[in-house]
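Provenance

Sequences were taken from public entries as deposited. Structures were produced by running a predictor on each sequence independently, with no templates supplied. The record for Tetraspanin from Zoarces viviparus is shown for reference.
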Amino acid sequence: MSVSRRCLCCVKYLMFVFNLIFWLGGCGLFGIGVWLSFTQAEFSSLPLSFPSLSAANLLLVAGGITMVTGFLGCLGALKEQRCLLFMFFVILLLLVLTEVTLMLVIHIFHDKLDSKAQGELKEGMKIYESEPGLKKSWDNVQKMFKCCGVTNKTDWYDVLNGTLPSSCCSVGTDQCVDGWSEPCYQKARQWLLDNIPSVLVFGVCIGVVQILALVFSLLMYCQILCAEKDLD
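Predicted structure for Tetraspanin:
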């Protein structure tokens, strides 16, 4: 066996292992997204800008793309096909660039994104009385988090003519006069940060595996070219 062929075999199995880890990581992200979706099912009628709902959808999309990309990488490594490897490299490179761009946008414009999300939620509150599904979701949110309104309980005054929904107070209260003072947006956001901190560590690990998979796919592509030249 030639030196280039031995190198190709080594890179091939290393790439397969890293892509298998990458695929399993995608399954993990998708699973967390499904778990978060189920735990937030009672709020499903709220706009997707609600913190926990947007996080659940983001994890589902990221997990799905990661699983497909990892599968392509494993298949390309085993089959030693330049076409699959090139496709995997391009998709993974685009994925990494998208993730970096998304993180930068969130970091730089987080205040504007928060304001936009809060504005969408306040706009949705206007149909609280006419939309039973939305009404139920808002009531569930406020009872669960013991909060009232998006940014303040006064958000309800324009919607309900200066009154508060009963869900802004303790369970069993027919008419709510002085509701909970904490805003629901911040409460839900803090709940998200408190409950899934390990996702951040997990995400960093996936990022490292992505970079390594990129390097190994490029190495393997070059090794296949060298092996084909040796055969010629």
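The helical segments are 3-39, 51-79, 82-108, 110-124, 132-145, 184-195, 197-231.
The CA atoms of residues 36 and 56 lie 5 Å apart.
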